[in-house]
């Protein structure tokens, strides 16, 4: 992580994408059909895509939300 987390005293911070690059397709499909995609093949594919994209920082912006866990020593 560059700067922000380090200046706050956090170490080993790593930014992660929460939904992955296909979250918008999944959400749009749910809104269009009116049905939940949970447990569907489409949902499984979205999860696989998120796992594949995780090690590529350039794909972080494709997620709707990000999380940056780190640790802070006392």
Structure description:
The protein is mostly helical and 74 residues long. The two termini are 20 Å apart. Helices cover 38% and strands 5% of the residues. The chain contains 3 helices and 2 strands; from the N terminus they run αβααβ.
How many helices? 3
Total beta-strand segments: 2
What's the alpha carbon Rg, rounded to whole Å? Answer: 15 Å
Give the mean pLDDT: 84
Low-confidence stretches: none
**Structural classification:** mainly alpha
Measured between the Cα atoms of the first and last residue, the distance is 20 Å
Major sheet: size, sense and barrel closure?
2 strands, antiparallel
The quaternary state of the protein chains shown equals single chain
Secondary-structure element string: HEHHE
**Can you give the helix content as a percent range?**
25-40%
How much of the sequence is in beta strands? 5-15%
Provide the spatial order of strands within the biggest beta sheet: 1-2
The dominant shape is: elongated
In a few lines, what is going on in this structure?
The protein is mostly helical. It has helices spanning 4-7, 23-33, 41-53; strands at residues 16-17, 66-67.
Task: Give the tags.
single chain; 74 residues; mainly alpha; 3 helices; 2 strands; 5% strand
Helix/strand layout:
Layout: H1 4-7, E1 16-17, H2 23-33, H3 41-53, E2 66-67
Antiparallel strand pairs: 1-2
